[in-house]
Amino acid sequence: MSGSELLSRIRKERTDDIPSFLYDTSLGTAYANIDVCDIYANGFDGELSAKSISAGRRALGHDGIIGSLLCTDCRAFGAEYEYYPDRQPMLVKPAFEDPMDMEYYSPYDMDTDAMDECIRSYQLVRKYEPDAAIAATIPSVLLMAATIRGAEALMMDVSMDKYAFKETMNFARGIVNLTSERILDEGTPDFVVIPGAYDNVDLLGIEGIEEHCLMDLSRIYYDCKGHGLDVVFHPHGVLTSDIGKKALRMFINVGFDCIYYGEGNDHRMIGELCQNEVTMMGGVDSATTIFLGPDERVRNDTMNVLEAMRDKDFIYSCSCSVDRGLDPHRMELMMSLVKGYHPL
């Protein structure tokens, strides 16, 4: 398989085998023998980011990869993180615990050396992995708002402080505009993934999705299509529940080329709901199948997903992301099953 076949699948063109995409946020650092903190602690190191992404792909053989471990750097607005050698940085102080602090900043303060290094990572990943399909990561506006304000505070603002919520969303919109402009123009990705951790019907309900998500998602979608790129949307939440089915229908109606669903969803049901309308991306839950194991569970869970999606427009992934600490042997076992599966 190759990146070109993954792109064909996104466009609902059939391929002989099932392509794969891994949203690798730190797993590759183990294969590259890089401490995660060395990538982030002094700004951002685009070369180490690219080497990590490349090492993960060379070990596991997936067809699609992200272009950079960094998408946005909220340290430009005063956010504080703790750094670790073996896991992702942890946000310990959001940029705008006090929403009034936004008046002292502009979204364009994000345009720092770290952003330049983010672009360099894309360029180096292209050099290291020329046959891969490279995804641009463009956060949803709601995800960006939750990042700069703090998720709990933002969810409280939705009902308790409409003004703070509006101002935070406006600021987040500016960040997303800057981020997408630079990455889409200079990073030269092959397709786009929009993570939407808080575009989650289980958090917001149907009215919240309609009021706070759809317009911004549509705007990002059309911006990406204007750059000639197909768009994968990655909402969180259960899309196969009664309320989740309604949200899924709303997301499909935006026009996304692919829905990348997360944990807790019924694979067969989501396949039926999306069949002939939109490509699907999904797979096993890394927190249970891979982290807990054992090998037999990896085999069973992976094959169950593949069989459920045998005749569907489908791309295999693994949970929402794969991170350092997951068992390398089980990851390799899972990917060998995917690459060895021939549905036709």
Strand order of the largest sheet: 1-4-5-6-7-8-9
- What's the order of the H and E elements? HHHHEEEHEHHHEHHEHEHEHHEH
Averaged pLDDT, please?
96
- Give the overall silhouette: globular
Derived structural class: alpha/beta
Q: How many strand segments?
A: 9
Low-confidence spans: pLDDT under 50, at least 5 residues?
none
What count of helical segments does DSSP give?
Answer: 15
Please explain how this structure is put together.
Helices cover 50% and strands 11% of the residues. With 344 residues, it is an alpha/beta fold. A hairpin with a 7-residue loop joins strand 2 and strand 3.
Salient structural properties:
344 residues; alpha/beta; seven-stranded parallel β-sheet; two-stranded antiparallel ribbon; 15 helices; 9 strands
Blueprint (SSEs and pairs):
Blueprint: H1 3-10, H2 27-32, H3 36-40, H4 46-60, E1 64-66, E2 80-82, E3 90-93, H5 113-128, E4 133-137, H6 141-149, H7 151-160, H8 162-186, E5 191-196, H9 201-212, H10 214-226, E6 230-235, H11 242-254, E7 258-260, H12 267-274, E8 279-282, H13 286-292, H14 295-308, E9 314-316, H15 328-339
Helix pairs in contact: 4-5, 5-8, 6-7, 6-8, 7-8, 9-11, 14-15
